Each structure stands twice: as structure tokens, then as C-alpha cells.
Amino acid sequence: MTYVRSTFRHPALPKNDLGYTVDYYEGSLSTLCAGCGHDSINAAIVEACWELNIEPHKVAKLSGIGCSSKSPAYFLSNSHGFNSVHGRMPSVATGANLANRDLIYFGVSGDGDTASIGMGQFVHVVRRNLNMVYLVMNNGCYGLTKGQDSATADAGSKSKAGSVNLFEAIDLASLAIELGATFVGQSFSGDKEQLIPLLKAAMKHKGFAMLNVISPCVTFNNNPGSTKSYDYVREHVEITGTMDFAPMMKEITASYEAGSINDLTMHDGSIIRLHKLAKDWDPFDPNSAMNAIHHAKRKGEILTGLLYMDQDSIELHEMLKTNEKPLNLLSKFQLCPGSETLAKINAGLR
Amino acid sequence: MKPTDISDPEYFHKVVDCQYACPAHTPVPEYIRLIAEGKYTEAYMINWDSNVFPGILGRTCDRPCEPACRRGRIDEEPVAICRLKRVAADNRGDVEPLMPQGPFKPNGKKVALIGAGPASLTVARDLAPLGYEIHLFDEQFKGGGFMLSQIPAFRLPERVLDEEVNYILDLGIHTHFKHYVSSLKDVLEQDYEAVFVGTGAPRGRELKIPGREEGDANIHIGINWLGSVAFEHTSKIGKTVIVLGGGNTAMDCCRTARRLGGEDVKVIVRSPYQTMKASPWEKEDAQHEDIPIIDNHVPKSFVVENGRLKGVTFEKVEAKYDEARKRSLVPTGEPEVFYPADDVLVAIGQENAFPWIERNIGLDFDKWEMPVVDKTTFQSTHPKVFFGGDAAFGPENVITAVAHGHQAAVSIDLLCHKKNLLTERLHPMVNLVSQKMGIHEWAYDSEIDEYDRLVVPQAPKTKTLVNRKQEVELGFDPLAGYEEAKRCLNCDVQTVFNAPKCIECDACVDICPTACITFTANEEEPELRQHTKVPALNLTQDLYVSETLPQTKRIMVKDEDVCLHCGLCAERCPTAAWDMQAFWYNVTKAGEVKFGPTMIGNMVQITRNGNGATP
Ligand SMILES: Cc1cc2nc3c(=O)[nH]c(=O)nc-3n(C[C@H](O)[C@H](O)[C@H](O)COP(=O)(O)OP(=O)(O)OC[C@H]3O[C@@H](n4cnc5c(N)ncnc54)[C@H](O)[C@@H]3O)c2cc1C
Ligand SMILES: Cc1ncc(C[n+]2csc(CCOP(=O)(O)OP(=O)(O)O)c2C)c(N)n1
Ligand code: SF4
Ligand code: SF4
Ligand code: SF4
Ligand SMILES: [Mg+2]
Q1: Is pLDDT of B515 > 50?
Q2: A6 to B513: CB separation less than 8 angstroms, yes or no
Q3: pLDDT of residue A259
């Protein structure tokens, strides 16, 4: 019987700039089903954080309820975490972020957690452009409650029991663009080569970064006729382009055909180099991005990669002109300046 | 790369690092699991079948398996494989009923074995149950060879040696002790179908420097001296002793000298400490007995005054390496140094000597006066004469002698049945059996224990240094044996991959603690080795490469180097594309061996039913 993963690691594991090997970013042993797409995404997050030289204590993991929402337990054991209520991760994230803007907020949700019970909270956190990564592990079903169709299940997709879904799917990527998300990407749990740079860019983005990642539920939605199974997704993925992520000041050495390259500079000076494959699509134009998504959908394809990005994103703190310092660094007097100050404010409002 | 052919038994054999490195290919992990289960008798028998002398080797083996042990590449130290063997031997029950039971039906064929060391004894054990009439000759009064005359009793008690030698002699061997064979020609003229030469490398190398003859009374050749101590012709040595040489013989000489009255005993060696031939543990044991090792000193002359040895002068050197990494010992130019000594033991190497083999009987010798011997069949250029052990290719060790003995026995059996020694040699016996019992359940204990190697307790110096026969090492007790056994990674439980089943979910890649598994585009080996999750730079370890995968047309590459055999990849695989399968590899020995390893059949009974063996 094994529920134990040895702590022995490859003796030649490389160290990142902080001197950590990748295991410093791991979480506890996953209890998800063997082969669940979510686990593969967790591994990609571990890798991305290691590569980005992130200090784990500078990350807060937030989630709702679902197999996907359990995931934060399985990466970054040395980070902060809050496993909230079903569909309510955005409000917790908003509160935490307003209190301490210095952390990286990494939200993990599911298609049920986001597109059903949590839809109300989701749309509002998007339109507020909260500075966070919002990752949906999208398996087209409620995995944790044994595989009921979710609101992202495609019309016509067949469940494991054989019933066919009658309703149109909610397209989270185009919805997010519609609502003003400033960074929208789509990917597949089985494609780490694409997913890891996308995660890195999302973490570096200032503002709301939404990643809709198709993540097969190997137990309840990996059957023939499902449009979220490993083989179906692999057959129907259309990659918009490949990308490299380079931290600040480091040169990108990968060479691509001229003319199809876009270098996107992030707010901290790091660079995303985008190598466009899809034609008739401009990742900086929301209409063009939405068109591309819809166009692919009509062809029965799933568009993946970085779909849309607003380089001039203004996140919530900037909009609200909040204090630069996190609340925990303010003195008691700054936080609670006393009844005299309150009286002045009240007077100003009269 | 081409997909790995796992139907070739040598592929998985190589993954079992210890077994692969063992000259006799003892199924190490199998017996270690048996020890952990407290099945010492079965563990003993697995050993006895492969290496014939578990109790002896569990104390004295050169243990080539340990530097090879995978654990040493992951943890600080390898599993204490050798000392676990001793745990099996020390705690075994009644093993004799499990051994072939004579009398055996004679097959009418006689074989002569010359020398009663481990090589000849192995041939005897393998052939006797098949009905051969075995005649064993040795000039000593009993069997054991160098195990008797050279390995000191404080490392190998005589009782342990005798017991295991007698298991063999009790199979009905005709012994001719105190019988020096002075002519091979004479032997060949008798009615033997085959003759096996296991006479070892009996001559100690001389040190021809000034003063050697004058000081002769107090200058002794190491192996002769050890022999005379073992046979109780020598029981004393001077107070100040110098041992020249840096191999295991030097270590046995200095430690024996400490027990025979040597108070100031030093080892003085030409080469640097790190490159001395002696095993690290032998050096440690010597130093523990207050014997300093002085390196980089080349002996120049024995100083003899008034016909009495006074000491030795040395030139100081340092090791220099040229571009080809070839070493030379270059004098430092410092003045010569003198070390006083009452006695000097010269332990600078051993040589073969075959004065009793005529050179006109069709048995060829090469320019180094070594017999020409085939490396697979151990046959000499005389079709009836076989060599093995130190006599075949120069001094090695007990386990190598055993390995040779098995192969020579196979050849002799083939020869006696008029079969071709090469083409009709049987392949090893192999088996591969799934260990799956449930989603998280395996028939082996897959959990990795992470504690450090245990240290074998020793008797106190106050006891050992006053009694040459007091065994120094006390061995692991059963609890320590259990704990040490648990450090074994079960490298014989193989990760077997079935590409058509894989859906490329990455679960195995992500769970593997030691980053063994990669899915990538196929390339040639040097490129693939760069593109594994962690570059696969240990070229002695193979890459396990799958066929093309159904979904992405990539391949699975597994670097065998630091796989823990923890089974997590197989536990995490949703489609059972990975499975953990116990691999059994047993070197073919003379006759047909019929017994099953415990993991498969739970029975260990060594029965041989060649011509006439009664199971
Ligand atoms: C000091 C010392 C310590 C050692 N310690 C170890 C150790 O700890 N572990 C280890 O694995 N190895 C050790 N070895 C090496 C090991 O003993 C030998 O490699 C091994 O015994 C070789 O076995 P063998 O069967 O070839 O012959 P041997 O063991 O050398 O036996 C040969 C026998 O043949 C007999 N013989 C020779 N010529 C004739 C003849 N013409 N007629 C009749 N009889 C004859 C000899 O009397 C002898 O008994 C040690 C060696 C030495 C010198
Ligand atoms: C308020 C509330 N309503 C319903 C549930 C039951 N419930 C638990 S998980 C879940 C759906 C999760 O689906 P999803 O977010 O897609 O996660 P998955 O398990 O598929 O990763 C539901 C409905 C709940 N826990 N809380
Ligand atoms: S039920 Fe589905 S989503 Fe949940 S762990 Fe299992 S495979 Fe993953
Ligand atoms: S058994 Fe599998 S999971 Fe365990 S170390 Fe080996 S390859 Fe990795
Ligand atoms: S866990 Fe199994 S199915 Fe998944 S990638 Fe590994 S071998 Fe393939
Ligand atoms: Mg879901």
C-alpha cells in the first residue's frame, strides 16, 4: 500500500536563482484520480513558479470547491492558501488582494465552480480587473460530485452513462474578453510546453489573467463521445501560436520566421515572445480575439494559446488609488487614525 | 532510437545493478526481501544456489555489488548487501534437507579437480548431483584453498568455512588431501573425462632491493606468512613491523601482525592513499586497530646491521598524471626516510605458477606464462582441461572463482554429453511476473525507507587484538538486518511500459520522485539523453524507449539511472500502461535447476535433475 512519495529526488536537479530545486515548490501528494488532468496542471504550476524564481511565501493560493479547487493543496506547500466556499473564491481573492497587494494571487477554480454556482462572482471579479491569475480547470463536468454535466459541456457531448447534453456551452474565454479581462489564454493540461510559458506570463501580467485550461476528468468524462476527453481534445486543438517567456533583461534566443513575432513587454520588464500561427487574429484587439475563438468553435476546434492581452491594463488598486503599502505594514495609527479624523471625513461628506 | 527490446533478458538484468555486477549474478533483491520477511533459510538457499558460500561471502566478499548499488546513486551509501547475506547465514534454519540429497545415481563419468579452493568446490557442487564421480586434490590437509590459508580467522571463523565446505564434500566427493599434484600429464593419463584446474595464484611477489637476502630471516612474503599463521607454524612477530603494499593482503598482514605481538605496526605503500588497491572498509578496519597507513613511499633498501634487520629506507614520491591520465610516481627530491622494523611483511602482489603443468601436452601458455583459456567456456587449448578461479586469469576473489566454477561445470557437463560448449549452452532462466494486487497494492513493499546505512557492530579491540581467532565483526542482529534490508529499492521489480495503452496524461511524469520519465519526440540517443527531464548523463545506465505513442506520436523515454522502483508511476497510471513486474534471472548451472523464487511460487527448493539427480 503506498500513499507515500519518497522525498528522494534526482541528485542532479538544477537550482533556480534563489537556490531552490523544483521540489521546494511541490505540494502534498495528490488524492485526485490517477490520470486526472488537474494533476498535470498542478505540475505545470510547480514548474512555472520554480522557473520564475518566485518565493513561495509571496504567493496566495485561493480556490472554491471541486476537484479542481482541491488542487492548491497539491502545489506550493510553502505558500499561503485559502480554500473557500463553492463559487466564492473571487470575493475572498478580492478581499485578500485589497489588504495585501504585494502577493501573487493564484486562484484555481473549476468549470462548475466558475460557470455555474460561481458565475455571479466571476463576472464581477473580471470587470474589476483584480490583479490575479484565475485558472479554470475545465473538464466539462462536476468531477467531485461524480460527473454531472457542467455549464461548459458542449451541446451534443455524451456523458459516461450515455446521455447527450442538450444545452449550449458557456464559453469562458470569450465571456472574459467581453467583460473586460485584460489577459485571456486557453490551453490543455496535456500540453505543458504551451501551458508553462502561459502560466508564467499570466503570473507576470498586471490585472486579471484568466486561463481556461481543458483538463480531462479521466474518471467521469474521458469516454467516447465526450468533447473533453484526452483524445478528442488532442484531435481538435488549434494552437494560435507558440510563446516563450523571458524574465527581465534576459535575451530570448529562440528564432522564428520573421514577420510572425510579437514581443510583449510585461510591466516588470520581462518579455513574452509570441510566435503567431493563426491568421486573421490580433491578440491585442478584443474583437479580433473573440472572432477567432468563435470561428474556431464553428469549425469544432479549440483555440489555444494566449488569445488576448491588454498591455495597458489598469488593475483594481490603480483604479481605486489605494495605498501602495499592504495593510499589514501600516501602523495602528495609520489604520485607525482616530475619531478626530473620522469627524473631519464625515464633515467633508456633509 | 529504436524501441527497447525488453524480451532480451539482458535489458532488465542490467537494471538490477547489484545482480548484474555480481560475478555469479546472485539474485540480490530477492534474498534481501526474504531477509526482511525473516525467511533466512530461503534467503540462504537463494544464495547457496548462486554463490555456494553465503556464510563465507557474507563476511569476506569483495562485494562488487555495493559500488554498483542504485541506492548509492540516490542516498549517501549503498545497501549493506554483503553483510545482509551474513544475516541470512547466521539465522538460517536447517538447510541441508533443501540441498540435493545423495547418494546420486552414478553416470559413469569421472572428473578430477585440482586445488580445493572455491572454484573447484563450485564445480564439485554443481556436478556431483548429476552423478559424476568427483576427485578433488589439494596439497593441504583440508578443503577451502585460500579461504582457509589466507583469509584470517578474525574475518572468517574456521567453523563457518568448514560448514560450507562440508556441505559440498558431503555430496559424495572423493577427496585427496595432502596430495600435491606434480604432473598434469599423469592426471590426464588416468580415466578422467575432464580435469579442472583450480590451483589459484599461489606465489607472492618478491621485492628485489638491497638487503633482501641479508635480512631474509625477518623479511617474509605476505601470503606465505599468512599461510603459516593459519596453519599454526608461526605464532609470533617482532614488536615493530612494517607491511609493504596497499592491497587487501597487506591489510590482512598488518592486522594479523597486531595479534601476534606487533605493537608498532605500519603499512607503507607506494601509491597515494586514495588509489590503494585495498577496499575502503579494509583500510578503515586496519586504521581502527591503530595501524597508520603511510602513502607515497617507495622502499629503497632493507637496512641490515650485524646480520640483523634494522628497518627500511624509502624514497618519497608523488603521483603525477600525464594527458592520457597515466600515472607515474615521481620522486619529490626530499631525502630518503628510514623506518625501523623488527620484521617486514612484503605484500605487493601475487603471481600464478604452474610448474606442475608440462608444456608439451597440447595446453598452450601465453607470453606471460598464463594458460590460454576461453572466457565463456573456461576450456584451455587442451579440450579436456578447464581452468577457473585465480588460476584462469590471475588473482581475483572468491565470488569470481565461484562464477568461473559454475561455467566450467556447465562446459564439463556439455563435453561429457558430446555437446557443443558454446552453441548448446543454455540461456539464463528468466521470468517476469506482475506484482499488482490492487490500485495501491503491490506484492512487494514498494514504500521507500529513507534512513541511513547501518553500521555493523564489532567486538572490542581489547578482545580482538589478543586472540587471532576472535571474529571482529559481530554481524547485524535480526532487527538491524530487517532495517538494512528495507533500504533495498527492489530493483528487480521492473517498470514495464505498454505504449498502446498510454493516453499521455502525464501522471507518471508528474508523480515520479526522481524525474525518470519523459515524453518527447524521438531522436538519436545522444540527443535524447539531453532532452530527458533531467539530462541522462550516466551512460552506464540505459534509456528505456517505447514505441511511438498513439495520440501525439511522441515516445516515452525512461532513464533507468535513479529509478526508485517505487511503483508510483504504475499506481498513477489510469490505464495500467505501466506495470511493476518482478524479474527473475538465474544463471544456468550444470544440470537443470528446478525451483521457484518466493515472489512467484513461494518455494525455494534447489533440486537438480540432470543425469541421475534425485530431487
Ligand atoms: C591474504 C588474502 C586475503 C584474501 N581475502 C579475500 C577476501 O576477503 N575475499 C575474497 O573474495 N577474496 C579474498 N582473497 C582472494 C581469494 O582468496 C582467492 O581469489 C580465491 O580463494 C581463489 O580461489 P581459487 O579456487 O581460484 O583458488 P585458491 O583458493 O587459491 O585455492 C587453490 C588451492 O589449490 C591448491 N593447490 C595449488 N596447486 C596445487 C597442486 N599442484 N596440487 C594440489 N593442490 C594445489 C592450493 O593448496 C590451494 O588450496 C584473498 C587473498 C589473499 C591472498
Ligand atoms: C454551495 C454548494 N453547492 C453544491 C456543492 C456540491 N458540489 C461540490 S463540487 C461541485 C461541482 C464542482 O465542479 P467543478 O467546479 O467543475 O470541479 P471539478 O470537480 O470538476 O474539478 C458541486 C456542485 C457544494 N459543495 N457547495
Ligand atoms: S473525478 Fe475527475 S476531476 Fe475529479 S479527480 Fe477524478 S478525474 Fe479528476
Ligand atoms: S518506479 Fe516509476 S515513479 Fe518510481 S522512481 Fe521509478 S519511474 Fe519513477
Ligand atoms: S500515467 Fe499512464 S497513461 Fe498517463 S502518461 Fe503515464 S503511462 Fe501514459
Ligand atoms: Mg469540472
Answers
A1: yes
A2: yes
A3: 46
- Retrieve residue A141's grid coordinates: 463536468
Residue among A29, A85, A20 at smallest CA distance from A57: A20
Question: At CA B557, angle to CA B554 and CA B563, rounded to 5?
Answer: 150
Nearest to A2 among B440, B515, B575 (CB): B440
| pLDDT beyond 60 at B461 | yes
pTM score of the predicted model: 0.91
Residues 458-517 of B with CB under 8 A from A: 503-507, 509-511, 513-516
Strand partners, B556: B519
Please tell me whether residue B103 adopts helix, strand or coil conformation.
coil
CA–CA distance, B605 with B596 (Å, rounded to integer): 7
Q: How does residue B569 score in pLDDT terms, banded at 50, 70 and 90?
A: very high
Spelled out in words, what is the top-level CATH class assigned to the domain B206-344?
alpha beta
**What is the pLDDT at residue B470?**
97
pLDDT at A260: 64
* Residue spans per domain, chain A: 22-320
Nearest-angstrom CA–CA distance, A318 and B604: 76
End-to-end CA distance of chain B: 47
Residue A196, C-beta contacts closer than 8 angstroms, at least 6 positions apart: A44, A47, A48, A51
pLDDT surpassing 50 at residue B35:
yes
Q: State yes or no: pLDDT of B595 exceeds 70.
A: no
Say yes or no: do domains B99-202+352-416 and B206-344 share a fold: yes
Using beta carbons and an 8 Å cutoff, which residues of A are at the interface with B? 1-14, 30, 33-37, 39-40, 42-43, 189-190, 192, 216, 218, 222, 230-231, 234
Determine whether the interchain pair B572/A35 forms a contact, defined as Cβ–Cβ distance below 8 Å: yes
In this structure, are residues B399 and B23 in contact, taking their beta carbons and an 8 Å threshold? Answer: yes
Question: Which CATH superfamily includes the segment(s) A22-320?
Answer: Thiamin diphosphate (ThDP)-binding fold, Pyr/PP domains (3.40.50.970)
Name the residue of chain B whose CA is nearest to A32's CA.
B572
Domain assignments of chain B as residue spans, ordered by start = 99-202+352-416, 206-344
The pLDDT confidence band at residue B534, using thresholds 50, 70 and 90, is very high
User: Nearest-CA residue of chain A relative to B517?
Assistant: A10
Q: How confident is the model at residue B458 (pLDDT cuts 50, 70, 90)?
A: very high
CB atoms within 10 A of CB A48: 23
CA distance A238 to chain B (A): 14
**What is the DSSP annotation of B29-86?**
HHHHHHHHTT-HHHHHHHHHHHHS-HHHHHHH---THHHH-THHHHSSS---HHHHHH
DSSP designation for B453:
P
Cβ(A80)–Cβ(A63) below 8 Å: no
Q: Which residues of A81-102 are buried (b: 16+ CB within 10 A; e: fewer)?
A: bebbebbbbbbbbbebbbeebe
Using 70 as the pLDDT threshold, list the residues of chain A that sit under it: 1-2, 247-261, 276-279
Instruction: Report, as an integer, the average pLDDT of B591-614.
Output: 43
The 10s digit of each residue's pLDDT in A51-95 is 999 999 999 999 999 999 999 999 999 999 999 999 999 999 999
Q: Which residues of A touch B441 (CB under 8 A)?
A: 1
Query: Nearest-CA distance from A120 to chain B in Å?
Result: 32
Cα–Cα distance list, A177 to A316, B39, B206, B270, B500 (Å): 17, 67, 90, 78, 40
* Interface A-B: count of C-beta contacts within 8 A: 100
Judged against a pLDDT cut of 50, whether residue B610 lies above it is answered with no
| Chosen CATH of B99-202+352-416 out of 3.50.50.60, 3.40.50.1110, 3.30.390.30, 3.40.50.300 | 3.50.50.60
Predicted complex: ipTM over 0.85: yes
- Bridge-based pairing of strands B110-114 and B297-305 is unpaired
Query: CA B585 to CA B432: how far, in whole Å?
Result: 9
